[in-house]
Specification:
The complex is a heterodimer of chains A (about 80) and B (about 220). Chain A is α+β, with helices and mostly antiparallel strands. Chain A has a single domain, classed as Phosphoribosylformylglycinamidine synthase subunit PurS (Mth169, Chain: A), CATH 3.30.1280. Chain A is built from two helices and three strands, in the order E-H-E-H-E. Chain A is elongated and about 50 Å long. The N and C termini of chain A lie close together (about 5 Å). The mean pLDDT of chain A is about 95. Chain B is of the alpha+beta class and about 220 residues long. Chain B has one domain: Rossmann fold (3-Layer(aba) Sandwich). In chain B, the strands form two sheets. In chain B, strands 1-2-9-8-7-4-5 form a seven-stranded mixed β-sheet. Chain B has a two-stranded antiparallel ribbon with strand order 3-6. Chain B is globular. The model of chain B has no long low-confidence stretch (mean pLDDT about 95). Classes of the chains: A alpha+beta (about 80), B alpha+beta (about 220).
Chain lengths: ~80, ~220
């Protein structure tokens, strides 16, 4: 099954790419732009058919390698 | 240590040799560091910096040996990408991410010695100002809040701490860290590139010299 991991910077950690992009959007004329936050998406395919087991495995992967707990939070979505 | 993508190993070896050490380059797949008195992780882009800087390098076979050397009190120094690897390996606290201004920074910076209780600052004086080059895009140190020891901070030419002198937006202007005992240390700027007059500064020799002085026969 496929599992999607959405990685986002932790609150309070400055996001220079996001703020530069927000500025660029405003200068393009998108005046309503507040903040922009840039994350990452990772898709992992696992062989198990058990959604709970797939989630558990990917959670472990996030803790051990896919994300850095000092900088990032993650959300897991089991696709199918 | 040499990982695929490491690119400062010859400069570091040269600098260590000038200070009287007998460096050897060790490929990352090696699983044995017995016989070595200390370890340096040089700068570069280990494993292409895929995922995050240092994230994959942490799983190179040699890293369990580096952890063993660190845990037995042996001197371990990470420079630039090596510092990022030590943070990812959780041998040092914190993490490094893209610079505040999303620009690559390559210029000499001043750093101030905050603690002399580390293998990289033992031969310096507290408050001493050192000029060495910074060369990184992902050099912004983010402190986890329970960090160990700050050993170097970015500063002005006279040691002034001010956001103006914080080139990359690091938490509290932190440029270098060490673990509690001080045997594991890491810094973003490159001391090995400031060891001869022709390079514009010789201050880096103080830091490399400190490290060499910390080496005790295994």
């Amino acid at each position: 099954m496929k599992v999607r991991v959405h990685v986002q910077r932790r609150p309070g950690i400055a996001d220079p790419e996001g703020s530069t992009t927000a500025q660029a959007l405003r200068s393009l004329g998108f005046e309503d732009v507040g903040s922009v936050s840039i994350g990452r998406e990772i898709e992992v395919e696992v062989t198990t058919d058990d959604a709970g087991e797939a989630r558990k495995q990917v959670e472990d992967m996030c803790r051990q390698l896919l994300t850095n707990p000092v900088l990032e939070d993650f959300e897991i979505e089991v696709l199918a | 240590m040499v990982f695929p993508g490491t690119n400062c190993e010859h400069d570091v070896a040269y600098a260590l040799e000038r200070q009287g050490a007998r460096p050897e380059l060790v490929w990352h797949t090696s699983e044995d560091l017995s016989g070595f008195d200390g370890v340096v992780l040089p700068g570069g882009f280990a494993h292409g910096d895929y995922l995050r800087t240092g994230a994959i390098a942490r799983f190179s076979p040699i890293m369990s040996e580096v952890a063993r050397v660190a845990s037995t009190g042996g001197p371990v120094l990470g420079i630039c990408n090596g510092f990022q690897i030590l943070c990812e390996a959780r041998l040092l606290s914190g993490a490094l991410m893209a610079n505040r201004d999303t620009s690559f920074i390559c210029r000499p910076v001043h750093v101030r010695v905050e603690s002399t209780n580390s293998v990289v600052t033992a031969g310096t004086r507290p408050g001493q100002v050192i000029e060495i080059p910074l060369n990184s895009y992902e050099g912004r140190y983010v402190a986890p809040g329970d960090e160990d020891q700050v050993v170097l901070r970015y500063c002005g030419p006279d040691g002034e701490l001010d956001d103006r002198f914080n080139p990359n937006g690091s938490t509290d202007s932190i440029a270098g860290m060490a673990n509690g005992p001080g045997n594991v240390a890491g810094l973003m700027p490159h001391p090995e590139r400031a060891i001869e007059d022709v390079l514009g500064s010789v201050d880096g020799a103080l830091l490399i010299g400190s490290f060499v002085a910390s080496l005790q026969p295994a």
